[in-house]
Fold this sequence. Notes:
This protein is α/β, with parallel strands linked by helices. The chain has a single domain, classed as CATH 2.40.50.140. It has 4 helices and 6 strands. The chain has a 5-stranded mixed beta barrel. Helix 3 (about 115-130) runs antiparallel to helix 4.
Amino acid sequence: MKNIFLAIAICLLIISCKTENKKVENNTKKNEVEIVETPLLTLGEFDTKAGEFVGKEIQVKGIVDHVCKHGGKKILLVTDEGDAHVFSEERFDEALMGSEIKVTGIVLEERIDEAYCLKMEEDNIKSHSEGVSNQEQFENKKKHIQQLRDQMKEKGVDYISNYSLQYVSLENIDAE
């Protein structure tokens, strides 16, 4: 009888030791932190590579060419190779104009398709009929809509993607 109890005790001891080791291994895996570096894209490659990063965080560097006067929540970042629009929930400081900055943001995609073009046409006709836009503005908008359609046809695609960034943070490179 003592031998049976001794055998059961040894089995329980072996089982409990193996379980503890598994717990230690699992805890080790949970405590590991994977560090993911935010990719830095040049503005020259932004339009071609942004599609790979939709909904993800990236960084771009450029010169602030424009801070939107209608609320200050949009900037245009430029280099000789390209540009990108950056949108924010808060106002950008107008003092950033002309500064070189590095922006961290989340890539957004706006798709322009035939339905979008039809809506633009409808809005253009309505604005013109209500006197909000003059004849020149009306005609320019019509040309722009046709250019979008021609671009889709030329590329053989159903939509055109416009990419921008939702602002997360910025670093003023000029200040360094």
